[in-house]
Design a protein that fits this description.
It is globular and about 45 Å long. It has a 5-stranded mixed beta sheet. The termini are far apart. The protein contains 5 helices and 5 strands, in the order αββααβαββα. It is an alpha/beta fold.
Amino acid sequence: MKHTLPPEPTTDPLSLAFAEAESAGGRGEVPIGCVIVDQSGNVVAKAGNRTLELKDPTAHAELLAIREAAARLGSERLVGLDIYVTLEPCAMCAAAISFARLRRLYFATDDIKMGGVEHGPRFFNQETCHHRPEVYGGMAEAKGQALLRQFFRERRG
């Protein structure tokens, strides 16, 4: 019996998230991108912000990627999957990450103003939080900050 090799893991998931962020910025959206991968590093879902395009304030990159992953896997639980985001998730996205039971959260840059993980409500630290992913922040702080600064500089300029 001939065995097929499993798919090759993708390149760095955070780089893919930044590509999604840059694409979102090119559409006039706040440049935030997200990628969800399995334990082998294979991409399950990816998205960039689409709040303006979809006229939907909940169309954050994380929520769009979680919805895509859940649909692809046929389950509301994304146990064992990891999520990579270019900016610290807001409280709404942190709640969705918890509800989806994602294994690990990696994010590039802190969001002191609207973050919900290491700033603001610190969602995963609340007693009522049922699932707490492992959190790894500040993985590409300078790159994430530069992307956001450039976007907002161009919008205001």
